[in-house]
Each structure stands twice: as structure tokens, then as C-alpha cells.
Amino acid sequence: MKNKIGPLPRPIIFLNTVLLVAFSLPAFAFKVGLVLDKGGKDDKSFNSAAYQGALKAQKELGIELKYVEATDNNLLENMHRSFAKKDFDLIIGVGFAQADAVKKVAAQDLSEKFAIVDGEINAPNVKSLMFEEHEGSFVVGVLAAMASKTGSVGFIGGMDIPLIRRFEMGYRAGVLHQNPKAKIVTNYIGITGEAWNNPAKAKELALSQFNQGADVIFVAAGASGSGVFDATEEKKKLAIGVDSNQNWMKPGFILTSMLKRVDVAVYDTIKAAKEGKFTGGVERFGLKSTGIDYALDEHNQKLITPEMKKRAEEIKSQIITGKIKVPDFYKTKK
Amino acid sequence: MIEELLLSTLRLSTPLVFAALGGLFSERSGVIQIGLEGMMLVGALAAASATTFTGSPWTGVLAGASVGMIWALIYAFFVLKIKADQIISATALNLLAFGLCPFFTKIVFDSTGATPSIPFEQRLGSEFMWMAFALVIITSLLLRYTRFGLWIQFAGESPSALQSAGVSVGLVRSISLACTGALAGLGGASLSISLASSYAPNMTAGRGFMALAALIFGAWRPLPTFAACLLFAFVDAAQIRLQGSATFIPVQVVQILPYLVTIVALVGFFGHQRVPKGLGKHV
After folding, report:
1. Phi/psi of residue B36, each to 5°?
2. Mean pLDDT by 10 residues, chain B (283 residues)
3. Hey, is the C-beta of A45 within 8 angstroms of any chain B C-beta?
4. Could you say which of A42, A191, A200 has the minimum Cβ distance to residue B113?
5. Do A314 and A177 belong to one domain?
6. How far apart (Å, rounded) are the C-alpha atoms in residues B158 and A214?
7. Which residues of chain B does A217 touch, with a Cβ-Cβ cutoff of 8 Å?
8. Is there a single domain that holds both residue A79 and residue A138?
9. CA–CA separation, B216 vs A110, rounded Å?
10. B241 touches chain A (CB under 8 A)
């Protein structure tokens, strides 16, 4: 029996060689490894934004893109290391949870270039892409206060971490800036990574907040956000999306989305690295650089009145010029 | 406020009730069941996918139950036929479910995470709740008053006695496990096509294990198990409301409440419980 599987005929070996060469050609292309967070590439929020940015780079710049999803935080370091071992030209970590892994792997392989979203690392070969979430949260807070009929609004966070507290603090300040008497209900879905993937719980939290009188809820909870949108649709209230433009998910029930242009940051980083202009250090994206913004499109134009739009633009410029100081959780609690 | 709290309790308890009843069938027939989580997960995915494809939540219900059942029968094959270790096989199947689900969504929906969102009209509302309540009664009657119910109990208490009476313990346990899978699958379906609007990765979030705790807390009996599920759900619902109002208590402390209650319940009552004598024993 075993004898039947002899050495391969020459033509097949030749063909294999040709194919091998043909398929390894793209290896000369600029290789980018994307390590996504627990929410996964289809969380329609934070990770989706990062993936979209990388996808755009793949289409427009002809880079070779590989992505992996971390189902477990213990895998992060291995994922980064394996990309580094395979000599990827740029490795991008998405999410605060990857900071330690990136820091460690980057220190061991200084020739490798890294970028991290939402984590601040000071190393010559790591670019930290930071966002001023509190600024955008302030703006949507103002909009929430204007859209609320009951004078009571809600905030639902995913995992209870400083980053999400930053969203909450900015939002709270925005709401109170617009309506000092407003009541704000806040909830967090959980204290583990599971919180990003628990729409059923998120929905229950939203229903409870509506029941307490809130009629606009800002949700910053990754893939769990869809549960809040479901509740909003059922109770005919309003929600505010986060990170990606989520207005399309339930048109008419999503007042706006606080945009965190992770896609732009990722795309720009890849582009710069490909052109040999990669620099380490921290880059901050805020309202000024439009890395942070609020979403206005055909899905929510009926919900945002001209008056609200005017007010939002006004607030935006006041934050940019420094007339309004938005409290920053990172600075107040450290 | 009270009314809303109770409604919330009922909603949160639904997946737990299904899964705990499922666990009951398995454990009362003598098979240890820590695989509820995996069965719920595949059930949730199957239900959401079937609903997405057909537009009818009832096919989703059917799909959830059937896929859960198939999953349980795979488990039955390992532990009853091959006589593999029950804890290890169930753990392996749980891990397999965690891995297989994203694999499936990637192939079918080109998404490593969620299935597409199911529109409001195609989701079920309180139907699952009523189904769960009905099943509690049915299970209770079945165990007490039917011949098959007695067989299940004997398979769990004294398999050799059942064997010598000429009834196949393996068959009784297999059928029980099929019921387990169907029920746990329904529990998963209630998550993905009623409580939420799509399957999300690992959306069961430990509910399979909570259900097992409820089963043990409920002394492997249908009505007390149901009460235990309601208690866990109530604590969870109360936790949600506490979190919003009592700002002086850290979120972390409030959020561990359901688990704290679980541990206290298990520690406080476990000693007095009568574990099915043949639990985990091969015939």
C-alpha cells in the first residue's frame, strides 16, 4: 500500500515550484498585521473602524493585510510576536488591552514597527494613536440634552475601565453644560472583557434606564451596543452610537454617533509607514484634527434640527479654541 | 418600578430556566452536565442563522433546539458509548463550540463576530418566557408521573437496578441528553432571537454555568430549580438598578452580587442536598 505513494512526478514538482514562486511574490508587498480586540472585526464599532481603515489601505495602497482576533487576552502577546517573527512591516494593535503585549514585544524586537490604538507607549518603534474621546463625548452630550424631552439622559458603558469612564465624564459635562438640571443615569455592563459582547444585558440596562425616565442613551460598549439599539427601537427612544458611524443600524432611533476615526488613524499610519515616514511617539486625534467628531448623515438628518447642528458646531469650535475645557478622566483621576 | 423589576427578572431568567431544565434531565439520569454553555452557544447561533435565512423566528426556535440536541448527542456518544470522562468531554465540547461558532459565521456571513441583525418583527417577545414556564411544569409532571420519568430517576439513582429490570440505561440516558440539548439550545435561542437581535460571540456569557449552579441550588428538582433561576435573575435585575442609583457603591461590587449569591447559595445548601447517586457513574 505504502509503495503506491511514491515520489511526485517531475511535472508536478515543477508546477509546485512555479506556484510557490507565484504565490510568494506578494510577500514583497508591504505587510501589515492587524491584531483586533475581543469585539472582533464585526463589532460595527471600534474594531470595525480599525479594520475598515486597514482594508482601505489594502485597496488603495496595495499592502498585504493579515488580521487576527484575540478571543483571549493571553493570546495577545503571541499574536504580536508571531507577526514580528514573520517580519511584518507594521503591526497594529487595536485596543487598550494590548498595551502591555505591544510594549513587551516591541522592546524585544526594535527593528519591528508597531502602532497601538488607545494605548500610550513610549518607545522609538511604537506609534501610539490616542483619541480625545472626552471632547466628542461632550459634543454628543450637548446634543443628547437638547434632544431629551424628559430632561433625563443615560450612559451605558461596556467594560468599566478608565477609557470608558473618560467617555462618561465628557458626556456628563456636555449634558450639564447644555442643561444644568439634567438627570444622568449611568450603567456599566460588566467588569470583564465579556462586557463588549453581551447585547442581552445591554438591552436590559437600556430598558431599565428608559424606565427611570431617560430618553436618550449614549452607549460605548462595542458589540453590546446593538442591544441598546434594540431597546431604543422597541421603546421608541433615542440612542447615540460610538466609534464607527452607527446611524444606519436603526435609522430614526439613533440620534448621532460619536465618531472616533480609528479608520483614519490606522490608514494614515499604514500610509506613512509604507512611504518610509514612520515615526514613533504619541499622536493625539481630537476635534481639531477631526479624528473625533459626531456623525451627521441621511439616517439622522431628521433627528438633528438645524438649531442642534448650529449648537454642536459652536460647541466644537469652543472646545477647539479652548474656551470650553472638557474634563478628562485620565487627568483628573491619575 | 417594582413591576419593571419583576418583568426584568422574568426576562433575565428565561435562558437560565431553559438551560437549568436541560441540565436537570442530564444530571437526574446520571450524566454530569457542564456542557450547557456550549449547547446554548450553538443553539443561539443556529437560531439566529435560521431566522436570518427564513425570516421566521419559529424556524429559529426549531433550529436552536435541533442543533442543541445534535450537540448533546455528540456528547452522549462520547460519554455513553465510548465512556469518556464526562467532565473532560463536556469541557472539550464547550471549547469546540467557542471555536466553531466564529468559524461558521465567517464562512456563512463573512463575519467573525455577529450574525446580521434580525428585524424587530422577526424576533420573539414573551413567547420564550411562557415556553420556559410551561416546560417547568411539564418536566415536573414527567419526572413524577410517567414511566419514562421514573426511568430517568432510576438511571441516575441506581442504574444497575434499572438495568436488571430490563431497561437500557444507555438508551434512557441518551434520550435524556437529547432533551438536555434541545432545552439548552432553546435557552440559547431565547438569547439570540428574543433578548438580543443577533448572535454575538460568546453571548451566553457564562449563563450555562449559572444554570448549573441553579440546578444544584434547586436540589435537582424542577420547581426549586426554577425558583433558583428566578432568584439569580432577580439579583441580576436588582444589580442593574442598584448600579444606576446607588453611586457610592463601586460598580464592581454591585456586579459581583449575582455570583456572590450563587456561591453563598451553593455553600450554604450543598451539604443538605441529595446528589443523584449514580451521577457520573458508567454502567
Report:
1. -60, -40
2. 86 94 95 95 95 92 96 95 93 93 87 80 87 95 94 92 91 96 96 89 87 90 93 86 69 76 72 75 74
3. no
4. A42
5. yes
6. 57
7. none
8. no
9. 54
10. yes
